[in-house]
Each structure stands twice: as C-alpha cells, then as structure tokens.
Amino acid sequence: MSLSRPSLTSKTYLAPAKVNLGLSVRDHRADGYHELHTLMVPLAVGDELEIGPAATLTLEVLGADLPADERNLVYRAARAYLDAAGVSEGVAITLHKHLPLASGLGGGSSDAATTLMALARLYPSAVSLPDLALTLGADVPFFLLGQAAVAEGVGELLVSVPVPRTALVLVNPGVEVSARDAYAWLDDEEAFTPALDVAAILAALSGERAVPYFNALQDGVSARHAPIRAALAALADAGLRSPLMSGSGSTCFALAPSDDAAYDAARAIAAAHPNWWVEATQTL
C-alpha cells in the first residue's frame, strides 16, 4: 500500500467532551448491552493530544494517573489504526488529560476518536474509521461525526441534528461512577424509559423554559452518591436552567442564558466548592 510521507512535526488536537441532552434507556438487550435513545452534543472543552510521527508507537499521559500502554484506549486506537493501515512506522502521542475520569463526558472515547482522525491525516489509507471506531467503544463513532446527533442502539446508530449554540456550566463533584454499576442499578429496578422528545428538547434550548429532557440513570446514581445530588442543587441555586446528569455521571450540567452568565455562575460555584471541577463552556 502506498502511503504519503508524514509531516515531520507534531500537531495538537482538541478531543472535545460531550453532554447528553437527555438519555433514555429503552430496554435491556439480549447481548448484555442496553437499547438507548439520547441526544449527544460536543463541547468546546476537552482533552488535548499532541500527535506526531515516530519510529514506534509511544504514549505519554499528563494530568492523570492513567496507564500508557494497551490498557489505554488512545494506545489501542493508535495500534488498531496502524495495524489496519499496514503502517510500519509509529506515532508519538502525548495526552493532556483535562477532563475528570469516569465523568460521563466521553473523554476516553473522544481521545480515541481524535487519535484515529489524527492518524488518518498522518498516514492516509483506505481504512474505514467508523468501523474501526465501533470496535473501540459505542461512543467513539459519535466523536468521529464531530457534531450533535441523536444516537440509538447502543449508541452507534447516529443521525446528525442541528443544535443551537448553548452556553452551559459543567460540575463534577469528584466522585467516579462506574457505567456498569449505573446500568445495573437501573436494571435492578427495571426503570426503563420512553424515547426522548427530541423536537421538544431542541425547541426549548432556544427559549427560557425548562428543557423536557431526562436521564434514566440519574435517579439510581444520585441516590447512591450524595455529591451528585449536591452538584445538581448547586447548579439550580446558581440560577441555571434544567440541571441534569450527563451519561452515567458524575458530571452534571445546566444551561445559561449567555456565556457571561455561565462564567459568572461557574466562578460562584467553584468558590463555594473549591474541590469540585467546574467549567463554563459552550456547545460546538
């Protein structure tokens, strides 16, 4: 296979976080996964990856205590692409981890998708990135899409939708939530939910009324993690609209009427809770 020569310099890429503007868990599937219906939106905040050509594959992680070998999804994504593309050369990757771990923001999946896209630029080939992404995780194909989408199935069935630019505040109270546990608690109570009303959610985003979204996992997770209840309360007390937990937690978010209002609310929440991770951001 003929490949173009790589650039001699590394480049820095944003791996954007996401929030779920509603998450319905419709049922438990025979394969052990769950049937989902969710509206996912990428954000202007995320991790960063420095990626450049090298003789072998190497990964360095800064900002978090994470492995830098095949246990890391970034490493696995890079290895999968290099092998599928038949590339004998390698890549040097530095992951700057800014997002909290196990937080419902899709950080690991976004890092993996960003790695795939960067390597496709560095070593072009006919490899299907969506097919490769799905082998790495159900959320990874969404981050390849690069825009808001309604996701169904286990999250791999994607339909792009236009979402108005929205300011919001993210709060992570410092607890890690296992997605496996979150879904198990829902299964125990058989608390499955109807499909989201996506049209109503999109219409409400541009207004001032409450957004009619919900997260099927929120009750089970927040019942077992008091800090998540505190985060949701702090967002509401700051005057922000429609607080909700993202994904399986533990990050929660709420909407702001403007960027300035989001930054003011984030500063106030961070001052009151100095041990929390708090960010004002916008949808992409």
TrEMBL record:
<dbReference type="Pfam" id="PF00288">
    <property type="entry name" value="GHMP_kinases_N"/>
</dbReference>
<dbReference type="InterPro" id="IPR014721">
    <property type="entry name" value="Ribsml_uS5_D2-typ_fold_subgr"/>
</dbReference>
<keyword id="KW-0547">Nucleotide-binding</keyword>
<feature type="domain" description="GHMP kinase C-terminal">
    <location>
        <begin position="212"/>
        <end position="273"/>
    </location>
</feature>
<keyword id="KW-0808">Transferase</keyword>
<feature type="active site">
    <location>
        <position position="139"/>
    </location>
</feature>
<keyword id="KW-0414">Isoprene biosynthesis</keyword>
<dbReference type="InterPro" id="IPR004424">
    <property type="entry name" value="IspE"/>
</dbReference>
<comment type="function">
    <text>Catalyzes the phosphorylation of the position 2 hydroxy group of 4-diphosphocytidyl-2C-methyl-D-erythritol.</text>
</comment>
<feature type="domain" description="GHMP kinase N-terminal">
    <location>
        <begin position="72"/>
        <end position="146"/>
    </location>
</feature>
<dbReference type="InterPro" id="IPR036554">
    <property type="entry name" value="GHMP_kinase_C_sf"/>
</dbReference>
<keyword id="KW-0418">Kinase</keyword>
<feature type="active site">
    <location>
        <position position="18"/>
    </location>
</feature>
<protein>
    <recommendedName>
        <fullName>4-diphosphocytidyl-2-C-methyl-D-erythritol kinase</fullName>
        <ecNumber>2.7.1.148</ecNumber>
    </recommendedName>
</protein>
<comment type="similarity">
    <text>Belongs to the GHMP kinase family. IspE subfamily.</text>
</comment>
<dbReference type="InterPro" id="IPR013750">
    <property type="entry name" value="GHMP_kinase_C_dom"/>
</dbReference>
<dbReference type="GO" id="GO:0050515">
    <property type="term" value="F:4-(cytidine 5'-diphospho)-2-C-methyl-D-erythritol kinase activity"/>
</dbReference>
<comment type="pathway">
    <text>Isoprenoid biosynthesis; isopentenyl diphosphate biosynthesis via DXP pathway; isopentenyl diphosphate from 1-deoxy-D-xylulose 5-phosphate: step 3/6.</text>
</comment>
<keyword id="KW-0067">ATP-binding</keyword>
<dbReference type="InterPro" id="IPR020568">
    <property type="entry name" value="Ribosomal_Su5_D2-typ_SF"/>
</dbReference>
<feature type="binding site">
    <location>
        <begin position="100"/>
        <end position="110"/>
    </location>
    <ligand>
        <name>ATP</name>
    </ligand>
</feature>
<dbReference type="Pfam" id="PF08544">
    <property type="entry name" value="GHMP_kinases_C"/>
</dbReference>
<dbReference type="InterPro" id="IPR006204">
    <property type="entry name" value="GHMP_kinase_N_dom"/>
</dbReference>
